[in-house]
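User: Last request for today: this protein with 6-O-phosphono-beta-D-fructofuranose, please.
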Amino acid sequence: MSSSKPKRIGILTAGGDCPGLNAAIRGVGKTAIVEYGMEVIGFTAGYAGLIQKDYMLLKESDLSGILTLGGTILGTSREKPYRFVNEGDSDKPELIKQNYHELELDAVVCIGGNGTMKTADRLRKEGLNVVGIPKTIDNDVWGTDITFGFDSALQIATEAIDRLHTTANSHQRVMIIEVMGHHAGWIALYAGMAGGGDIILLPEIPYNIRSVCKKIEERYESKKPYSIVVVAEGIDHPKKMSAASHLAEAIQTYTEIETRETVLGYVQRGGSPSPMDRILATRYGAFATQCIADGNFGTMVAMKNNQLTTVPLEEISDKLSLVDKDHPLILKARRMGVAFGDEY
Ligand code: F6P
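Assistant: Here's the final one, the structure of the complex with 6-O-phosphono-beta-D-fructofuranose:
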């Protein structure tokens, strides 16, 4: 770490996008410019911009009016500079180092999910000053209680479930709704509970299709003519079809109750961030810049017990934050009759 004050920093957004990325860029950039008088550059398309030296100078005026915008003004990609597949790929880490020094950067803020933090940690080992900010709708970044993007996705998924209730009731159908989350069930659990789902299937709790069908049949027999099944995309299912299609087929076959599926997809990642995500992303951004000013490098900013803190990047690498099968919300849900497919 240099002893002089950081003067020039870079920002990049990597991995799948989510609502709140622009709020985080703004939080980093405005704090850097206004409070610390730093110069800020933004790399385009995640780590690809750092490899190709493709960047833009971000003035304070460039950061105005972006708080409410979905997506990322910098663009993003799933470029992984340490995955060597094609010829020439092994040059990428060296190119990053070269560009970092040629651009006279004092630090880079890497905004992303698990993969982004893993790469940031590799760059730390190469001697670069990096600070990570956790983002993803999946909420699966280890070391923080919450990532920004999750609350917005939750709002969208919950609204979708709310809308399915009325049509399910009119037709007396089983409605399956598949939500994102990769290997984690955070969106399914929270949206399932917020939207009054009857059955919630998570990758963390292996389900039994007979148990799912039994619950639907019991509801039917007790004059609850429709059921809402909220399913995470990451549950065990044949990969040639969506989890929702697989379940719809099986449920209709076993119960003979008309069943329909909805795969919510990328709408969960699009559009304007929720107020909570705007605040969280802004706080993470401003705090990341403070970490740079304090020389606190090689860390990811995080929220633990409602307090901003930092976690060493080396602790995060290769870990996932998954839903505990005894999560308090699951225990409460079970006591209210919500099923998770592992009953009986
Ligand atoms: O990690 C966010 C996420 O939206 C996951 O929920 C989903 O599985 C994945 O990204 C989709 O990735 P891609 O943008 O590569 O299609």
